[in-house]
Amino acid sequence: MMRPLVEAIRTFKAGPFRSRDLTDRLGYTQGYARNFISQATRQGLLIAEPKKGGREKTFVANARIIRQVVLKGGKDKEELLEALGLHSKYLGEYVALRGFTVVDHDVDFHMLGERILARNETGDEVVITNVGVPKKILTIET
Amino acid sequence: MKVAKCWDFGEDEQPPWPTIEITLSSGDRRATITPKVDTDFNGSLAIDREAVMKLRLAAKGTVLITSATGYSETPIYAVNLCQTELGIDHTIFAIGAQRSLVGRTLLRDRKWLLDCKEQRFCLLRDS
């Protein structure tokens, strides 16, 4: 489930896409694309957008998955951050994300933390993480 | 130069290590702990699982850290830190760790005395 989701985010970011876009742009078969959309929507990873007129149904990636994946960490996190294009812009930095949006970033974890706390952005919407190996990594001896 | 405050070394491991006493809070929950002073830790505060559970902290993200055993990913928590002698009473981001630690960021810009003879760690102030 994670692989096609990451590919969809890499291609469409926070924008809407249709089942046909997955076949046209990602090369998925119609059955695979429909299956993925069905399962991902059921799991809350995708959100179905209301149909406009007679047009085909569109979907967007649920912004809440950014937080879930960052908190889970590991390979999925790195793949997702890379798919969001953060590796090319913020490699070695710490970023604060609200959904798909980078609200702040810094090479220094402490400085970024102070700014986020000063803006009182400690609610559940903002999540902080590193992109790749931090240039100023936190070191613990024990 | 005067000694403002001293804390006894922690006896829970050998050799004993310097510690300082701090109070953490989150919402209406409080916990007073005596983290080990770790000058190899370049952050502010690391808190162990027991403190996280007691304060019912929710992770606000994850960060990569490095230690003698290599890289690892750890959760971060927003927690209020109060330390009267240091004049600290504000919210910081602490990292989750196997044991609670105070790091260099919290110690900097102050004078300290590591008294291994009396097994105390003291905050100094200009007289």
Describe the structure.
By secondary structure, chain A is an alpha+beta fold. Chain A folds into 2 domains: 2-61, Winged helix-like DNA-binding domain superfamily/Winged helix DNA-binding domain (Arc Repressor Mutant, subunit A, Orthogonal Bundle), CATH 1.10.10; 64-130, no CATH class. Chain A contains 7 helices and 6 strands, in the order αααββαααββαββ. A 3-stranded antiparallel sheet of chain A has the order 4-3-5, with helices on both faces. In chain A, helix 4 (64-72) crosses helix 5. Chain A is elongated. In chain A, 28% of the residues are buried. The model of chain B has no long low-confidence stretch (mean pLDDT 95). In chain B, the strands form 2 sheets. In chain B, strands 2, 3, 4, 5, 6, 7, 8 and 9 form an 8-stranded mixed sheet that branches. Chain B has a 3-stranded antiparallel sheet with strand order 1-11-10, with no helix packed on it. Chain B has one domain (2-125): Cathepsin D, subunit A, domain 1, CATH 2.40.70.10. Helices cover 9% and strands 51% of the residues of chain B. Chain B has 127 residues and is mostly beta strands. Chain A binds chain B through residues 70-71, 73-74, 77, 94, 109-110, 113, 116-117, 122, 124, 126-130, 133-134, 137-142, and chain B through 36, 38, 40-44, 46, 58-68, 71, 73, 75-76, 78, 90-93, 95, 97-99, 101, 103, 105. Strand 5 (126-130) of chain A pairs parallel with strand 6 of chain B, so a sheet runs across the interface.
